[in-house]
């Protein structure tokens, strides 16, 4: 089977990508920032053969040469709880047998911006260009690299399009990205542009695809360390379930969403579908609002009613919200999107299982 390098393996989206890769028979090496994170991933897949899953430690993707010298850790034998570490000082992008594909999901997403450059811009941009340079230099067998970008690289919040698609680009600049309110969008936009520029100028051995989802909801992974470590996009559901918004419905923000399992499948399909090369994919299931989410939770979990805002609390659904065109994702990748009710119900279930 083809072999895949998956970066940021402990992340929300990457965890679901990893599960789908393994289910479809791919051999996977994933990058993590620490041995602890890597061990949790291995422990979560006790029946996976050791040759199918391993991890490498990349402590800081923004550092020059971050994907060069690393330690490789292999999975334990069968389901026995004895770790067998294969310690090899090597390049993250080199492997035996060699990699066929790379899925690069590692990039920060949170709202605690202390230093825009250090916290967001450098990790996103340098992490992206750094891995592309390493692949070109050390991994000539790689056919395609898929990068997790974002609707943030598409949307123009100052002058909305009537209908958003892959054709649109956020016009944000580096200087504007130094303002914390713009930092995340700038990091995703500039990182994706840097990736396309690299491929155009360097003419590497691989082609490129990008996945551009808006708000990503869906079940949390079963090795979540704590509810306080919940991914940023699911934090709104976690806050509702935990009773943090009893008085009023919080602002929705971006009015487009998608389930994480569909985002994960989109990543995998980009390496299964030859026509996916050299393309962006806007991955969205459609419109939603926080009031929609609350109504679904109240109906599916009536025991949580006293933790939710009042039934008559007003929502913020505008009548003229921008439209979307996700046809490329359905036509090329064959996606069939989950509905909001399924996504929210499944998400709340996993949150309750994790102590919400």
From TrEMBL:
Keyword Metal-binding included in the entry's annotation: no
Keywords per UniProt: Oxidoreductase
Domain of life: Eukaryota
Domain NAD-dependent epimerase/dehydratase: 4-278
Organism: Aspergillus mulundensis
Protein name: NAD-dependent epimerase/dehydratase domain-containing protein
Molecular function terms, GO-annotated: oxidoreductase activity, acting on the CH-OH group of donors, NAD or NADP as acceptor
Family: Belongs to the NAD(P)-dependent epimerase/dehydratase family. Dihydroflavonol-4-reductase subfamily.
InterPro entries xrefs: Epimerase_deHydtase (IPR001509), NAD(P)-bd_dom_sf (IPR036291), NAD(P)_dehydrat-like (IPR050425)
CDD domains per UniProt: AR_SDR_e (cd05227)
Pfam families: Epimerase
């Amino acid at each position: 089977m083809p072999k895949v390098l998956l970066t940021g393996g402990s992340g929300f989206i990457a965890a679901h990508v990893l599960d789908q890769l393994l289910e479809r028979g791919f051999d996977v090496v994933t990058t993590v920032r620490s041995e602890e994170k890597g061990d949790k991933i291995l422990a979560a897949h006790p029946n996976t053969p050791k040759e199918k899953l391993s991890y490498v430690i990349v402590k800081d993707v923004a550092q020059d040469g971050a994907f060069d010298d690393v330690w490789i850790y292999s999975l334990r034998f069968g389901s026995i709880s004895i770790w067998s570490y294969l310690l090899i000082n090597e390049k993250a992008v080199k492997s035996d047998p060699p990699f066929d594909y790379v899925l690069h999901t590692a990039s920060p997403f949170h709202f605690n911006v202390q230093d825009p450059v250090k916290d967001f811009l450098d990790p996103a941009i340098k992490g992206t260009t750094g891995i592309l340079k390493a692949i070109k230099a050390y991994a000539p067998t790689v056919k395609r690299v898929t990068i997790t970008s974002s609707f943030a690289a598409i949307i123009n919040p100052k002058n909305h399009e009537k209908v958003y698609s892959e054709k649109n680009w956020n016009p944000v600049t580096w200087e504007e990205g130094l303002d914390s309110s713009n930092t995340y969008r700038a990091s995703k936009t500039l990182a994706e542009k840097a990736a396309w520029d690299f491929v155009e100028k360097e003419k590497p051995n691989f082609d490129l695809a990008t996945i551009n989802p808006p708000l990503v909801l869906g079940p949390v992974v079963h090795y979540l360390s704590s509810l306080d470590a919940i991914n940023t996009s699911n934090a709104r559901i976690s806050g509702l379930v935990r009773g943090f918004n009893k008085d009023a419905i919080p602002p929705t923000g971006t009015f487009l969403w998608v389930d994480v399992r569909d985002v994960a499948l989109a990543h995998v399909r980009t390496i299964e579908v030859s026509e996916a090369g050299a393309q962006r994919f806007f991955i969205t299931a459609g419109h939603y609002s926080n009031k929609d989410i609350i109504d679904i939770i109240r109906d599916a979990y009536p025991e949580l009613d006293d933790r939710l805002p009042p039934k008559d609390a007003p929502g913020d659904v505008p009548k003229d919200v921008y439209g979307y065109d996700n046809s490329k994702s359905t036509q090329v990748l064959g996606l069939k999107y989950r509905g909001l009710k399924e996504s929210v119900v499944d998400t709340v279930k996993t949150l309750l299982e994790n102590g919400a």
